[in-house]
UniProtKB/TrEMBL annotation:
Record key words, sorted: Hydrolase
A molecular function GO annotation: hydrolase activity
Cited Pfam families: Abhydrolase_6
Residue intervals passing through the bilayer: none
InterPro entries named among the record's database cross-references: AB_hydrolase_1, AB_hydrolase_fold, Sec-Metab_Biosynth_Hydrolase
UniProt entry tagged with the keyword DNA-binding: no
Keyword check for Hydrolase: yes
Domain AB hydrolase-1: 14-234
Protein name: Alpha/beta hydrolase
Amino acid sequence: MNPQQALNSTPPRVLLLPGAWMGSWIWEPTAESLRSRGLDAQEVTLAGLEPETPAEERAAIRLADHVDQVCDLVEHGAPVVLVAHSYSGMVAAQVADRLGDQIRSSIHFQSFLPVDGCSLVDLWGPDGDARAQERADIIADGYLWAAPPAAALDAEAGLGPEERSYLAERFTPHPGRTVLDKASLEQPVRSQRGVFVTPARTQLPEALGGAADWRIEILPGGHWPMLEHPGEVTELIGDHTAAVDSLL
């Protein structure tokens, strides 16, 4: 077996990227369940999301820093499946764009998917006024994106009191520049391979328009499926990774 054949026989490693305001803790139970299935799964805390990070250091982190961080975590030549949630779709899709076939596939749970030359805030909210207000609030807060208040989680019907407290107590301000910086892509996201997980087909991002190599999975519920449906989330990731592995 030559080195390339040996490399292709290696099962994909799963990297789990958290959404805004969160660290690796949001994916820890999922990663443990995946490891119990024999998968090499690693949960990630993106730069600046460590709770002890000083505000000025947090505010200095850029979107490109998160993309570089994840690229550095991908061993050269080793196949990887990226799992993203919400904000981290902006990161995962740019990593896949940069690394090409080394990223065998991506799984996006209600992710923001980047459009070249647009920021996450450019894709935020119902209209231009909402986007302008979100941008102004981030700048006014010293380039920090404030976490949702505990009361906002009461609207998440799929979460129980324990899950709401779990999130509210662990949320940390997010590096604001990462959601104001514009994404950079050589190819549109729809040209990548992946799975997009959403509560309804009416909630698909425009960036997926015309995608040929994407699978759409419907998982009813709110914005934190790893807390609401932990078994289904683990099964989806594990089964998709196994399917990708069988094609290597």
